[in-house]
Amino acid sequence: MHVQSSAAYFHVERVKAVIKDKPFFYSETHLDQLAQANTDFSLFSMPNNTTLEDHISAARYQKWTTRVKKHFGVNLKQFNRSLPFLTTQFLQSHYMASDHSLPLDKFLWEFAKSEGRQVDGIESVEFQTQVLRQISLKDQLKMLKDFLANPNKYKRKLEKLSIAYQAQEVNKLYLLTAASVGGLRRILLSDRNKRMARVILDHKAQPSVYTFGAAHLAGAQGVLALLKRGGMQVVAC
Fold it and tell me: What is the pLDDT of residue 60?
């Protein structure tokens, strides 16, 4: 889970032990390169130098501004140039506690570096940017609209995800996530799963630790199933 809550860190000591035992560590993306990319706001901004206000009515913008202020205590104006998908993700993260100073993936990345592991990303920052651009602005706006229509509904979903994560119920995690992304399942899950599995299979002779969002694990097109079909033996630790 890409968050700072204790739920995400529930199994962190087990992961740290495995990182110490392997020379290579892969995160979902190269997090140092991602940090550099974040300084180039154009990668994650609205197309054609437009803003959120350019794509919705004044009345809807005012309604969303009021809801964001009420539920999250922030001004929607600060997200005016951000892709709506990222705005939705940021607002949803407010429902997860910030018990730790870093999101889990960043913490593990820094831990691997401190242990002298060779680090890299499964997906490039450029690839992840391309994935975002595949989601139409219309779909992104709908996601934000649906979320702001009933934020508490999404809060309950996140609570279910956290419980499933701590219990290591990967199939439930997949089903909950797949249901929430709807028609974007291929873009956000299936296509990326194939790429992740291919990278792991290409480096199967190299003792490595791979970390990525838990929703990518299960399902007929999940990374675990793809690795099995690729000839790897998958054993729970």
Answer: 97
CA distance 83 to 2: 19
**DSSP code at position 212:** -
Taking only the tens place, the pLDDT of each residue in 100-139 is 899 999 999 999 999 999 999 999 999 998 999 899 999 9
Helix-, strand-, coil-residue percentages of the chain, each rounded to 5: 65, 5, 30
pLDDT of residue 3: 82
* Residue 84, both tokens: 């709506």
Give the chain's residues under pLDDT 70. none
**Other beta carbons within 10 Å of 91:** 21
Give the containing element (helix H, strand E) for 119. strand 118-123
With beta carbons less than 8 A apart as the criterion, state whether 211 and 15 touch. Answer: yes
User: What's residue 93's pLDDT?
Assistant: 85
User: Which two structure tokens, joined as six digits, stand for 27?
Assistant: 């995160």
**pLDDT of 56:** 97
Give CA 224 to chain center in angstroms: 18
Give me the DSSP letters along 58-105. Answer: HHHHHHHHHHHHHHHSS-GGGGTTB-HHHHHHHHHHTTS---SSS-HH
SS3 21: helix
